[in-house]
Amino acid sequence: MSGLRSGQVAAAAGVNPQTLRYYERRGLLAEPDRSLGGHRLYPTETVTLLKVIKAAQRLGFTLDEVAELLDAGEHRHGRHADAGLRARAQAKLTEVEAKIADLQVIADTLRAAVKAGCDDLVECAGQPCCPIPFTTIGTVHG
Fold this sequence. Notes:
With 142 residues, the protein is an all-alpha fold. The chain has 6 helices and 2 strands, in the order ααββαααα. Helix content is 57%, strand content 3%. A two-stranded antiparallel sheet has the order 1-2.
């Protein structure tokens, strides 16, 4: 039997060996063959697959989304075009751009709080110059 052992695959892909077993449990990696001594033997393509998984994660895809992308890639024939990378990447891009817009608002608000000299959150909330957007959830009647 030929193949790469867990440590070799992990080192080549830049992950730790526990990641391999975790991805197997999640269904991202097929269970590998075993040597006569019981060692896992992975095909060399596993290194590329791991790099693809890690790259997709860095782009913001969850492991569930990565699994769907991998499944869509393996079963392209007979599937709808919306199951492919392009559509999913466009959806992820829209999601990321919305997060960036939200983060920009947060950054602008924090800059304004720093500039306004807010040192105490409760005290600042009572000041008209406070830039932090406090909202009232309701009034308490006592």
